[in-house]
Amino acid sequence: MLTIGYLAKMTGTKVQTIRYYEQVGLMPEPGRTDGGQRRYGDAELDRLSFIRHARQLGFSLDAIRELLDLSDHPARSCEEADAIARRQLKQVEQRMARLDLLRLELERMIEECSGGRAADCRVLEVLRDHSECLTDHESIGT
Amino acid sequence: MLTIGYLAKMTGTKVQTIRYYEQVGLMPEPGRTDGGQRRYGDAELDRLSFIRHARQLGFSLDAIRELLDLSDHPARSCEEADAIARRQLKQVEQRMARLDLLRLELERMIEECSGGRAADCRVLEVLRDHSECLTDHESIGT
DNA sequence: GCTTGAAGCTACAGCAGCTGTAGGTCGTAT
DNA sequence: ATACGACCTACAGCTGCTGTAGCTTCAAGC
Question: Which helix (H) or strand (E) holds A127?
């Protein structure tokens, strides 16, 4: 029987985060000792590892919920998992494309910085004058 | 005299967001009509454009506060603005490097997907088995 | 059996950076 | 005078945790 602290240590998760996952339904309600402390089995450790790995790959908790659901029903088609992963990949690619634009503009800004007074600073000037910029009106996706 | 709605439209910002910026001290408290509605001048429109552009470049509100402060004091050195921009650039580069790792792993996962039953799904399997993965234990920086 | 200290418990507030809602008021065109 | 869109305040909610306060439980050592 594993304590919450052991699961935390094994997966690099904070204890509170595990309780949070339970609260939002990603982790099951585990058994308890007479004193009310959570005790887990190996299945829960695996499940938590799965969740953490997926989080590291940038999957949202909702996406992970779907993936866990698929994982719990091995007879079902793999297509859905594939679709979720492809969606995630597309998002990653979009973020990278946006970041690349930002990188270019930041580099341009910095390169042109005269190092003089703020009045002549290209960094500030570029920010002030939107017209010479590459980016559109969308907010940056994190 | 410009209404809050006009500023919103001109800068692609939600009205509530402008009020939020005022609340957190990025935008000044503007004058009001007798009825209590906000009225702005051109300076505020410029300031808001500056903020939005910086947000699009991924600057945090705190960084923008610093940049605005520099912009308000044109006689000061440009070095600080340059440092802030360089910091931002470094963050962007780090995010891109991480995203690139994620992209590779996602591509690998998807490529190996058999298209069969979930039981054989590589996507799920890779998530289950952390040992074959490229990423470390840090959480993905957004 | 008793003590101690680490680890666990609940409940709740807070982070960034907004966004949405409810329930009301203002401004202006007709 | 009225209608209606734009505005107002106040507050809750989003994602995904993280931190705190104040308490209880567990396990090891004596």
Answer: helix A122-128
CB contact under 8 A, B79 and A115: yes
Q: Give the N- to C-terminal CA distance of chain A in Å, as an integer.
A: 39
Chain D bases closer than 7 A to any CB of the protein? 6-11, 15-20, 24-26
Q: How confident is the model at residue A115 (pLDDT cuts 50, 70, 90)?
A: low
Q: Smallest Cα–C1' distance to nucleotide C18: which residue has it? A: B17
**What is the least distance, in Å, from the CA of A32 to any CA of chain B?**
26
CB < 8 Å to B16, chain A: none
Between residues B50 and B102, the one the model is more confident about:
B50
State the Cα–Cα distance between residues B37 and B20, nearest whole angstrom. Answer: 15
For chain A, the helix, strand and coil percentages under 3-state DSSP, each to the nearest 5: 65, 5, 30
Residues in chain A: 142
Task: Name the one residue in this structure whose structure tokens are 């594993």.
Answer: A2
Q: How many CB atoms lie within 10 A of CB A111?
A: 8
Long-range contacts of residues B106-112, Cβ cutoff 8 Å, at least 24 apart: B106/A57, B106/A85, B106/A88, B106/A89, B106/A92, B107/A89, B109/A85, B110/A82, B110/A85, B110/A86, B110/A89
Residue B117 backbone phi and psi in degrees, to 5: -80, 155
Indicate whether this complex's ipTM tops 0.90. no
| Helix (H), strand (E) at residue A87 | helix A79-111
As a whole number of angstroms, the distance between CA A120 and CA A112 comes to 10
Which of B100, B113, B137 lies at the smallest CB-CB distance from A82? B113
Across chain B, mean pLDDT equals: 85
Nearest-by-CA chain A residue for B130? A53
Residue in A closest to B94 by C-alpha: A99
Does residue A103 contact residue B96 with C-beta atoms inside 8 Å? Answer: yes
